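Notes to self after the call with IL:
- keep both proteins in one doc
- input above output, always
- annotate only the second one for now

Protein 1:
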Amino acid sequence: MNKTAFREFAATMEDIAHDIVRACRRGARTIATMPWPAMLACCIVLAFVISILPLALFLFVLFMGLKVVIGAFAVDRHRAQREQFGDHYGKQ
């Protein structure tokens, strides 16, 4: 990586860091001016997003993986049955 490319990369990373800091400061100011009931609702929504949503996504991926594995075994069993009976069915 030459110096010009590194400088561009460093400048991009610095811009990203400034944007993140600016967003955090804006979020902190917004939370500081919120009334208590709105802050409670915000905390409940954040708790949902942080805990329940990843759990649901993980379970979805887990069950889809199980479905693929079980489907592979079923296809293998059907293929073995076709080979056992001499391919009389399944081909047109």
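Protein 2 (the one to annotate):
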Amino acid sequence: MLQISNTVIERETREMRRNTRNSSGIFACFASFRVFRVLFRLIICPLFVICLVIAGCSRRDLEVEKRQDLSQTIAKLRSCVPDDKDGKEVTKLNLAVAEVVNNTNETAVRIVVYAIDEAVDFDFPVYSLSRGRWLINEKGRAYLLDEQCREYKLKDRRSMSGQAIPLDGRISLNPGQAFEALLSFPRLSDQTQMGVLVYGDQAFPFSLWAKSQ
């Protein structure tokens, strides 16, 4: 009986020691968790909030800078457009810029001439051999201006409607009709994002987002 009792006591002693070690491990883990939670509240969480605030401010600053750059570019383009009408009435053109693309050897401007409620007579540029340039109705010009106020003179123009442009450059459209043509200019710089098509005494701003080909 004494031997059995000693065996039982030894077994219980080992069990108590093992339980004590497990309890110590659990207590250590719990203490480590509490320390981490305190550190998170005091250090990590504030740092995370500060990073979010800084990132938000940076995004707002970039957006503000982009808007400012765009406003400055538009203002500069407006200053490039000549204003020499001397009080003359501006000719209203039923013209829209449909697309501007930088190709390998040219900048192609696709324009649409249209008539809505009444017939329209529209004059395309005609090449003058005596003057060595393209002229609209023998006096006006068609050219591009980029963001640096550089001028790009017209090189060629061609129909995209299946109907050839007459020799005198004038086409007549009935109400509801439209005519597409391509104006060819020297290639714009890859850095150009905005520009202006000056056609006679009117200016047509455009954005150049198409990839160079």
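Annotation: The CA atoms of residues 2 and 14 lie 18 Å apart. DSSP finds one helix and twelve strands in the chain.
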